[in-house]
Amino acid sequence: MNSPNRGNVGIVIVSHSPKIAEGAADMVRQMVGNAVPLAWTGGDVDGGLGTNVAGILAAIETVWSPAGVAVLVDLGGAETNSEMAVEMLAEDRRARVVVCNAPVVEGAVIAATESSGGSSLAAVKRSAEEFYA
Amino acid sequence: MSLDRASREKLVRALAEAVIQHADELTSLDQAIGDGDHGLNMKRGFEAVLATLPGLADKSLPEMLKSIGMTLVMKVGGASGPLVGTFFMELGKALPEQPTRADLVAATDMAINAVKARGRSEAGQKTLLDVLVPVHAVLAAGGDATAIAAEAMQAADRTMPMLAIRGRASFLGERSIGHMDPGSRSASLLIDAAIKALEFEARS
């Protein structure tokens, strides 16, 4: 009871399409349950296809965990915008957020599964990225 | 180079108008080899920049550039937001309030390196760097305003035969050859607009 709970690694899903991001998050919830902090974001600031830094920052904030946050992205702009968002975080948080080089749907499910077992941020990232290995 | 408040406002308007007036052209270039949103995205970003006038021009030159960069990062909505936004933000960090030409050469060099790092890209890969890098070379070699603006336009044209290695166009492989890179075109438009606005300033 008194052992410190460092929490599970948070997962953020970023897609150009809000529907894909939300759908991928639904899959994670169905398959992994509620043990993992999970948020999704997608679309540009006008609601069109794209990604936006403010939305990514807000999503990271939503799932913030002392264990860190793993971000899963789809195409190039999602990755570039996510990297920009990470750089804009406060310095003490920046090092605890990673953008994974993994497919967004499969990567999110694998990362969340790994996180639900209490794994470290590095292990969560590695598992997601092994999908491409 | 000393820019008073009116000149700073003129510069911002020139940059924004160059992008907004060419939004359709940028979109059609992007429809050929990208996802067709470059014009719309850049227009959205620069309309947001325009919306921060006149307060934007009240800031010092470095703060104004940082602010433009941040607005583009937050509003553009594609990879070009962080890339072009980073260029402006880094330029703002590196330039003094009253920059000399040497300051401008050094600051643009730093800003270009930041864009390379952000996009993990180099010149020759059919991106905006194929305009930024050669234009910087002309600036560093002492080229005048006309030479710099001409190089910006010619450099964008030179992306046509290139094979895209980075960005959405790289998905097309060989099919990217024969089309001008939209990011190069918007970079050339911004440089041309800045040169003309600043040249006017130098003469007046």
Automatic annotation (TrEMBL), chain A:
Its EC number is 2.7.1.121. It comes from the Bacteria. Keywords: Kinase, Transferase. GO terms for molecular function: phosphoenolpyruvate-glycerone phosphotransferase activity. It catalyses: dihydroxyacetone + phosphoenolpyruvate = dihydroxyacetone phosphate + pyruvate. Residues 8-133 form the PTS EIIA type-4 domain. GO terms for cellular component: membrane. Pfam families: EIIA-man (PF03610). GO terms for biological process: glycerol catabolic process; phosphoenolpyruvate-dependent sugar phosphotransferase system. PANTHER family: PEP-DEPENDENT DIHYDROXYACETONE KINASE, PHOSPHORYL DONOR SUBUNIT DHAM. Homodimer. The dihydroxyacetone kinase complex is composed of a homodimer of DhaM, a homodimer of DhaK and the subunit DhaL. Component of the dihydroxyacetone kinase complex, which is responsible for the phosphoenolpyruvate (PEP)-dependent phosphorylation of dihydroxyacetone. DhaM serves as the phosphoryl donor. Is phosphorylated by phosphoenolpyruvate in an EI- and HPr-dependent reaction, and a phosphorelay system on histidine residues finally leads to phosphoryl transfer to DhaL and dihydroxyacetone. This is phosphoenolpyruvate--glycerone phosphotransferase. It comes from Bradyrhizobium commune.
UniProtKB/TrEMBL annotation, chain B:
Gene3D superfamilies: 1.25.40.340. Residues 6-196 form the DhaL domain. The keyword Cytoplasm does not apply. One of its GO terms (molecular function) is glycerone kinase activity. One of its GO terms (cellular component) is cytosol. Keywords: Kinase, Transferase. Pfam families: Dak2. GO terms for biological process: glycerol catabolic process. This is Dihydroxyacetone kinase subunit L. It comes from Bradyrhizobium commune. The gene is dhaL.
